[in-house]
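Repro case for the chain-ordering regression, as requested:
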Amino acid sequence: MAKEKKVAKLIPLGGVGEIGKNSLLLEYGNDLLMIDAGVMFPEEELHGVDLVIPDFSYVVERADRLRAILITHAHEDHVGALPYLLKQLGRKVPIYGLPLTVGLIEPKLHEHHVLRYADLIGVSGPERFSLGPFGIEFVPVSHSVPDSAAIVVRSPVGTMFFTGDFKFDQMPVASTPPDLNRLREIGDEGVKLLCSDCVRIERPGVTPSERVVTEALDGIVHDAKGRVIVTTFASNIIRLRQAIEIAGRYHRRVAVVGRSMEQNIDVAARLGYLDIPENVVVPFEDLKQAPSREVMILTTGSQGEPTSALSRIAMGDHPLVRIIPGDTVVISATPIPGNEETITRTIDNLMRRGASVLYPPVVPNIHVSGHASRDELRALLELLRPAYAMPVHGEYRQMVHYKGLAVETGVPQDRVVFAEVGDVVQVTPEGISHDGKVRAGSVLVDGLTVGGVTQVVLRDRRHLAEDGVVIAAIAVDRETGELLSGPDVTARGFIAAGASSVLEQGAARLKRALERRPVGEVEYGYLNRKIKDILGSLIFSQTRLRPMILPVVTEI
Amino acid sequence: MAKEKKVAKLIPLGGVGEIGKNSLLLEYGNDLLMIDAGVMFPEEELHGVDLVIPDFSYVVERADRLRAILITHAHEDHVGALPYLLKQLGRKVPIYGLPLTVGLIEPKLHEHHVLRYADLIGVSGPERFSLGPFGIEFVPVSHSVPDSAAIVVRSPVGTMFFTGDFKFDQMPVASTPPDLNRLREIGDEGVKLLCSDCVRIERPGVTPSERVVTEALDGIVHDAKGRVIVTTFASNIIRLRQAIEIAGRYHRRVAVVGRSMEQNIDVAARLGYLDIPENVVVPFEDLKQAPSREVMILTTGSQGEPTSALSRIAMGDHPLVRIIPGDTVVISATPIPGNEETITRTIDNLMRRGASVLYPPVVPNIHVSGHASRDELRALLELLRPAYAMPVHGEYRQMVHYKGLAVETGVPQDRVVFAEVGDVVQVTPEGISHDGKVRAGSVLVDGLTVGGVTQVVLRDRRHLAEDGVVIAAIAVDRETGELLSGPDVTARGFIAAGASSVLEQGAARLKRALERRPVGEVEYGYLNRKIKDILGSLIFSQTRLRPMILPVVTEI
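-- result from build under test --
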């Protein structure tokens, strides 16, 4: 019998050359494993789009072969697409993660009515288990949510190490320090491929420990004369834990404002990741009569999201919380690229209402990143000494910088693997090479529709957003083509002042043109084109604008 | 004879509580002076808007009383609104500035066909002159364009000092170092009010000298094996000057790509602000055959603007320039807030084409700001010792930080003046106080229309952008109300997959409802509402989307 060829395929469905929708597929023989299934938040130009998820076609077509989904940690860009994926798979799938990870996933799946498709399995850190040809090990790492893990996959083609999101925090707040010896041991075993987070490689040195935030927050809360309002990511359980501890230290009670944050705190407390003394966290109503010095408010909105609690507080539009002069607001987060304007506007509005607002980098150490900087990424490369390295969780320039770093640590230039979304990376005992592409990409979620927003729809939305729409309605006799009514020319989102004159001129010019037209059976395409040409050129010559022109021809 | 009351009014028309459209009015008796008339670049949510300019109504209504416009420096956020203002004033106005400033303004006014309204007057730095009750002095300062000036206005109510944009560059590249003694002398005279740039107050310390860029650029050009492509703001004459000098030093010839940059270099060279050795700056065509090591390209697009030269080069879409592997691209600029995504996308695309891309802060010192950091702002306060201080050129939080700084240097808390756009700040020999508001705000420019885009238009554009538009056309008999044709329901920018089924169901439901309707004369409002209600609720229940629904009712 000929020896069967050992081949694994690694297929990133997202998260390479982009920030967000992290998801990787691993295929060996008949078995598929998925690592993470995250969402991406849409750029501004994706008008109206709520979320972007990976195109899961490849795995959905092979749904029966999917052994399990392994989750590194419970951030939206790693788990947010699970509900959509499960709905598409339409079958029950084992989902593995450390205990808090599966704990945080559960209510989200419940909300989407897909909990029945999930077999949620909590894994303890050091445990090893097998899934078909794959040997799995979860290695705890530090990040901004507890129970974050790297995942080691041992397979017939070698050992692959997936970092998830990580940093080396030597004094972490909610976990043990990174087990560098364990990492070195795994390196000693021989790592074929390291797939590493690279999003923060542009920063030199190491990311500061979460511990520096403890000190900074402690000082702020100690000094504050009034209420302290702290905002951070709803998922940043570690930061929330620190804030609650410090509040307790200075005899402040804590109200949590913002649904996602309340939910995460509930789950984390229930699973033992947050030790909340009795009567410290209370409903906001209970604090209405409390002296300002005894109040802390934890709230969502650290990115200035327009509908978030903090943004509404800043606008004076929140049903419960109003800013009182003397309030100290701590923005314990940095803007995700693209959110700079919304967050600075929120800061400005909070200040206009009399709050003192502390934000990075003006006030240092009130936020630290959960991601490894360059020297930590280098340390991991040096501990694991992989034969091949592949940057993930980064945009293209970050992947390029990671390549430079990997080469510095001894990985040969041609063994740094660059994969784009959908690329098939073939791993054999002999080496790693590209092997074509599978269908993959972005699927846009808008309201209840998944995939209904296409490039054509987006192009139309962009056009409509730019200069609005002009509607020209006429009624013609079906047989003679005679103009029975109209043209009525109206507009929305075009221009106000001066528009009526342009539109009236357009209607008059159109009417003359249509009346001149030889009478006969209606040619729909001809009429459409005529209306667009006449109105379009008149409007452009007078305004230099190109609204979308929609002819409405009714045949009677 | 009763002593007449001395009152000056200072009215910011823009630039306070916002970045951009810097413009201040100064009024004394019958005389008006304007300092700067800048534009603001629209935020993303101002769909389709090209530019934002100040509402100049107050000065336009008093056009005959406007003595002059004084310009601090030739950046768009200080001069970009001049063409619109001059058109509205409809009369010739003296415009004063240092020589390069008026030199750079001239071609812009010419392009807008308003040069006939401008009496451009170049001022030499130390010169003093009078305009009615105002004594004017231009004080040269360092900034990223040569011939930037602060403006001192002496008036019967005291001396006012307007910084314009400035930093204290002790080793400037294209000007003499700041004359601190002159500033101290002005302080000795007594300054009633300091209106200070505050945009960079969140940065501690001092802004590095432009000189550090010289060294960094020199090293890069020295080491580069291939072509060097440098991008910066088209108006950053100082940076361009350095790049050209360094190119000459290493025997590279320079091609300039990007119309605004070519124009600015022409003006600066003609007026003696750029000393270009013969045959160093040449058309790009002349460099096609040149060895890569002998080529430098200067290009616009440092903000990743989609239609800019660099962005098109990055997309492989530029008519002249294509990236060759081995090219070094230097991004000698930092993103203006809001532009982070476009510039990182440009960097990624340049790297995908094989360029090595150097950008801040990953590569340090290839850009420095033209604005004063906190310690420089403090130094100016200490030199001038103003009785009152008013932060301008900043958002609200920056104004708040400036207030803290002014108080630190000895300005009493209640003498730090906060003005919003349109506020009248009344200055008398006795003191400074608020005195109501005048009509002021933002006017939106879209194509040829100025002010045609209103809040209603923007709201409609936002609505259209979000979920698209659904058009429901029916024809009814004018007298009987009988449905003659339709409903025809079509959509644009809505959703693709699944849309036809929703729209067909909508049409059918609408048809039933309209046919059930008691026959009689057409009630237009009733039909409109009916169509919107029926379609809107069906679409929302099936998709959770709310497209704009436009009924088109034709009466025959």
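Ordering looks correct now. The two ends of chain A are 77 Å apart (CA to CA).
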